[in-house]
Write a structure and sequence with these properties.
The protein has 162 residues and is mainly alpha-helical. It is built from 7 helices and 2 strands. Strand 1 and strand 2 form a beta hairpin.
Length: 162
């Protein structure tokens, strides 16, 4: 967290015009940069997880309300009866495996946030592919530990098994 605030302060010193977009998360209370059109708002969630958590909580509440109605109860009964099918189980396993692979990479929300912030800092529009390349370079970097090259390679292969 200290590194994040250090970088944020240095960016604000270099680009004082971005100070207008500095806002605080309504959930975890950390500072983050927002788009200039959202400047001055204090009801925003940070892109580091609070926004997604709030969205998920709201979605769960909507689902609970729906499934308590008569129409929702009948639909839930139908969905539960489909689970008995073995093909549905295999499909569910494939979806879980795909979601596990996606969790290793940077989320779409974080990529769009980085696209906006880096674009504001550099003063130009950033393409999604540029951001993904930049993130890939940063993620690919070795840690600060002193280890042999083979140890890095083995760790990489264990995390991303073919």
């Amino acid at each position: 967290m200290l590194q994040y605030y250090f970088v944020l302060r240095s960016v604000l010193r270099a680009k004082p015009c971005l100070r207008r977009g500095l806002t605080r998360c309504r959930h975890c209370r950390i500072f983050f940069l927002t788009h200039p059109r959202n400047a001055g708002r204090n009801d925003l969630g940070c892109p580091f997880g609070c926004k997604a958590a709030h969205s998920k909580r709201s979605s769960t509440n909507r689902s609970v309300e729906y499934y308590r109605t008569d129409e929702g109860k009948s639909k839930k009964r139908t969905q539960n009866s489909k689970r008995k099918n073995h093909a549905a189980k295999a499909e569910l396993a494939n979806k879980q495996e795909a979601s596990a692979l996606n969790q290793r990479s940077v989320g779409a929300g974080m990529v769009s946030y980085l696209q906006m912030v880096v674009g504001l800092i550099e003063g130009r529009r950033m393409g999604r592919s540029e951001i993904l390349e930049m993130v890939a370079r940063v993620v690919r970097q070795r840690s600060m530990e002193r280890r042999r090259r083979i140890d890095y390679i083995l760790q990489y292969l264990n995390e991303r098994a073919p």
